């Protein structure tokens, strides 16, 4: 009725020879994981409330609580980092894995959106009822790629050079270069966002209820813009940390992962520029 | 990497002063705010059981309605579809995945690689609670309004605002988004733990095969789940923002959704079954008293399944109007997956061959798994044929196929892992006799439920209908009787749980004896709150 007891000495056949103290510190209880889950539920519930015409209050509560929890959680993470600089070297590697994997998930999110775009770009006959098999659709005049989009592209390309300069400053211990480079990248990121706002204010087609092309244009550019916003916030964080005297030749995992993220956003825009704005332009474009 | 850790560890002060700091934590602190992989793993298993019981009740309602033709338990097709949808989503996203990946993965991946905890303990707890919030939302989708009657595959146009007005579908889709965040955070955590926190001396090819399974599963999650999130985002926008991604009247293409869904959906079936394979790789050598036959072959087979799983999504769309060349490709690519899967099956058989086999309860479930998975795999080969699938798609033959690989494949592995590790998790033995009764009743019950559905499907009975012509009455009755046997079996399982947690017996460290050779058997039962604060050096 019950399991036999085989008294086997610990480790026999398992291959432990000796042990060493673990470099990994246990983490204490934290209210933030539960809080962020609740805040996310409130936010998504708030979105549903908006769609069901019940007003914006739940969405506002959700978003505010989400931002508050993120801030408090981030503060805890930074406090941890201050306490143990040596273990941070090892934990830094975990952070690198995490950021690389996070960027991969973001990449595959855009796989879905670009899949949607190429579905019609390569197979325009897949468009629905009453649409001629041409892409972009006949009724659509796209934005002139050599106008605002080219400006945005140059801004993003320039930002990768300033960021590389900043990272070089971190690696060589030149704090001034690091700060100036990060600040310049931040400003370029804001310039890009400004350009996108200008573009959205002067669109030659309605974003919603305008059919398949505006739908794809919106989801690709809006999610790209959202990622630039996140990138700008991360750059601001990196700048604040630099001003606090953090990041140096021996502890740069945080800066490095933020640079990776920005590079992802950069490459994403270049791909978007080439496929959506340039190759996907209609015969007659609007500036 | 591992040797780096050793070198660094030697230069670091011990952190024993931090140890056992949470011994004083309150009940609520421990179960709501935990950063301990074992507590979080336990919570995953508990929530999975809750979702599993709910999903099981829904399936029992379905079988009760289908027991006789012209039954009147559920007369509304929308309600029926809502039950079908919730059953599928609960079982996939809130039972199998949380239990296998979140539960056993959390509990045993850190222990099996000799790490004190997961790489990101707070993120770990976040994964858990995102899952719970997702579960709440999927339940809102079931109970609020008219219910989400779109099937687990969520196809538009049925899921459009035109055919499913109201908030139900929005709740369900948002629930899946939250569950997706949970899966992704969990996958990042597992990969970072496995790649960065292995004990010194544990090279990648010394890792237990369960850890390999979790690693490949996590990579699949990283690449599959975001595509679903993107598709759901587009679907939500079609419903609420007036976009036209899948809306033909606005120039959109509903088949695009099917591509995106199945680009996620097919890897998803391997995401569910690879951890199950991983458990088999721990259980079968233990009770055969032999090391696994062909370790490297098993690793490469796991990787091959993970890779091929991304190349075959179109076999779910043979009747969606894809071209003949596409059909030929997807059929051939699908059949190729039978090769690495066959490698696994034969590796298990070769492991048992000549071994001194002990038919303890976990081993019974493992043998049950192999049998069921081979049956489900064989019908999978039938369905992979684009010609045959034209007839069999959306019939009960398909229902039987995926319940054989999931309801019986994944679930049998789940129970196998449960009986294998519950002693390590609780420190108490399970009642061997009742464990075997649980197995045999479940084995008979599931076979009785699902085997006749092959005949129903071949005879042309379509799925997702609450009623059928009297010609199908006989086998439907048998199938429903099988569901009753399953229900009885789960009551027996509840009794087993009671027996475990009321037991006064205390198990030894390695209660399976010399067959069990992985690291979890070197620590006490139950596993103490913190393990490997002194990391082991593996020779």
Offer a quick outline of the entry.
The complex is a heterodimer of chains A (287) and B (539). Chain A is mainly α and 287 residues long.
What does this entry look like structurally?
- The complex is a heterodimer of chains A (287) and B (539).
- Chain A folds into 2 domains: 31-83, Helix Hairpins; 88-286, Cytochrome c oxidase, subunit III, four-helix bundle (Four Helix Bundle (Hemerythrin (Met), subunit A)).
- In chain A, 68% of the residues lie in helices and 2% in strands.
- Chain A contains 7 helices and 1 strand, in the order βααααααα.
- In chain A, helix 3 packs parallel to helix 7 (253-279).
- The radius of gyration of chain A is 24 Å and the shape is globular.
- Helix content of chain B is 67%, strand content 1%.
- In chain B, helix 3 (37-65) packs antiparallel against helix 4 (77-112), helix 6 (168-196) runs antiparallel to helix 7 (209-240) and helix 7 packs parallel to helix 9.
- At the A-B interface, strand 1, helix 1, helix 3 and helix 6 of A face helix 1, helix 2, helix 5, helix 6 and helix 7 of B.
Task: Furnish the topology, listing elements before pairings.
The complex is a heterodimer of chains A (about 290) and B (about 550).
Chain A: E1 16-21, H1 32-51, H2 57-83, H3 85-122, H4 148-172, H5 175-201, H6 212-243, H7 253-279
Helix pairs in contact in A: 1-2, 3-6, 3-7, 4-5, 4-7, 5-6, 6-7
Chain B: H1 2-10, H2 27-32, H3 37-65, H4 77-112, H5 121-143, H6 168-196, H7 209-240, H8 254-288, H9 295-308, H10 324-352, H11 361-384, H12 386-392, H13 396-426, H14 432-458, H15 473-502, E1 534-538
Helix pairs in contact in B: 3-4, 3-5, 3-15, 4-5, 4-6, 4-8, 4-13, 5-6, 6-7, 7-8, 7-9, 8-10, 8-11, 8-13, 9-10, 10-11, 11-13, 11-14, 13-14, 14-15
